[in-house]
UniProtKB/TrEMBL annotation:
Organism: Plantactinospora solaniradicis
Entire protein: shown range: 44 to 329 of 505
Protein name (Swiss-Prot/TrEMBL): M20/M25/M40 family metallo-hydrolase
Lineage, top ranks: Bacteria, Bacillati, Actinomycetota, Actinomycetes, Micromonosporales
Peptidase M28 domain ranges (all copies): 68-273
Length: 286
């Protein structure tokens, strides 16, 4: 499993910050900052060899919301698909760096690393950058609800990345007891970092759209506005304050509102899951 470059994750974060700064300070789904964010990931994925689509959200999204970006890495068993997703939009209050340039930057860097290393693919891998999450998980809901049932059945798991570099962060895994969750947990176990169920984020990000259609999900999160407990400070360090003091605020900026350690581990955990599940031996046909 390759190491996901923290330097490159941070370079993408700087680009998202620059995009917000040049476009009125935010990357809300209906904004010029969102369009620029779409173009940034789209262009890099195409250049790396992905099959990339801008999927317009034609129902359920906020009026004027930009598209989802869906990127398929060619190859692997088309009947065995692993999806990895993050919302690309932010709230209007600020540039949306931990929420959720952190997930978007990491997803992009994992995709670019997969393309560069070009391993034998057992399963097919698809990356999704969602629009209009902040107004109600709308981009992912549109994707899930319009996906033909035959395509749904091919998805073995969906992994979500939302707020993965909180400055006073914790190590949370969505649906940690699922097979998908145990794969992510195995990475953190291997580096001696304890993990917990993501109770704060349950039902509040795009994995919920896949749970609704019966796809197994997991994901990584580092915490939002909830306050870190004394027990969590003991095992993870930090302070008994909010996991992200800038949650949905103007101060959700780069570089001040990013923990490099938490970000680095999340990227490497996601890569561990992707390489473990989707590369190498061809998957058993479903
Ligand atoms: N979906 C939430 C958001 O984007 C993310 C979140 C994660 C909220 C964890 C609460 C807890 O704002
Ligand atoms: Ca790394
Ligand atoms: Zn979010
Ligand atoms: Zn948010
Ligand atoms: Zn590392």
């Amino acid at each position: 499993v390759p190491d996901i470059s923290l330097t490159n994750q941070r370079a993408h974060l700087q680009q998202f910050q620059n995009i917000a700064s040049a476009n009125g300070g935010n990357r809300r789904s209906t904004s010029a900052g969102y369009t620029a964010s779409v173009n940034y990931v789209y262009d890099r994925l195409v250049a790396a060899g992905y099959t990339v689509a801008r999927q317009n959200c034609t129902s359920g999204c906020t009026s004027g919301a930009g598209p989802n970006v869906i990127a398929d890495w060619p190859g692997g068993d088309p009947n065995s698909v692993y999806m990895f997703g993050a919302h690309l939009d932010g709230v209007s209050a600020g540039p949306g760096i931990n929420d959720n340039a952190s997930g978007s930057a990491t997803l992009l860097e994992i995709a670019l690393t997969l393309a560069a290393s070009n391993p034998t693919m057992g399963s097919h891998v698809r990356f999704a950058f969602w629009t209009d999450e902040e107004q109600g998980l709308n981009g992912s809901e549109f994707y899930a609800n319009t996906l033909p049932s035959a395509e749904r059945a091919k998805i073995r798991a969906y992994f979500n990345f939302d707020m993965i570099a909180s400055t006073n962060g914790g190590y949370f895994i969505n649906r940690i007891s699922s097979a998908a969750g145990q794969t992510l947990k195995a990475y953190y176990d291997g580096i001696g970092v304890p993990t917990e169920e993501n109770t704060e984020g349950a039902g509040r990000s795009d994995d919920a759209s896949f749970n609704t259609i019966g796809v197994q999900t997991s994901g990584v999160a580092a915490g939002a506005s909830r306050v870190k407990t004394a027990a969590q400070v003991t095992k993870w360090g930090g302070t008994q304050t909010g996991f992200d003091p800038c949650y949905h605020r103007a101060c959700d900026t780069y570089p001040s509102n990013i923990s490099s350690t938490v970000l680095d581990r999340a990227g490497d955990a996601a890569a561990y899951a992707l390489w473990t599940l989707a590369t190498g031996t061809p998957a058993t046909a479903v």
